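Researcher: We're reviewing a set of sequences before deciding which ones to prioritize for further study. For each one, I'd like a predicted 3D structure that I can look through quickly. This is Transcriptional regulator, AraC family. If possible, include the structure in token form so it fits the rest of the review sheet.
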Amino acid sequence: MIRRDLGSAVAADTARLSVMPLEREGGQAQFVVHDQPPAPRGSALEEVLAWLADNADKDVTLDAMAARCGMSQRTFSRRFREQTGTTPLQWLLRARIRRAQYLLETTEHTVERIAEQSGFGSPTAFRERFRRIVGTTPQSYRAAFHGRARQAGTS
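Model: Here's the predicted structure for Transcriptional regulator, AraC family, in token form for your review sheet.
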């Protein structure tokens, strides 16, 4: 009903917020949006988190992150964990997965191209990390969230 009334993009967002695929098949994994823990407004990390999200597809090092905040790597890592509840690397990997989810939902690009556009070194590393974080393969995710959206758009 949501897809018919409000469109496929709203239906996909609603399904993710409801922790459900658009249409569930037997034995299919649930899909969860993995939002990043927000940094408090005005914190030293607010700017670097925005920069990380914008540059998730690039080769970003811990040293580069710390330098953007004017901190040593050790201080940066400690403050990052205090303010976000996770490590800089885990945060970056989740940002890359969110970008890949968006591309799987909205493009026809191959998994190999999406791996590259999302900042993963190889399609194999991308597939493994995607499965570990999302709980399914990139192809299954696309089938649940992109294939149905295309069908709705053609009717």
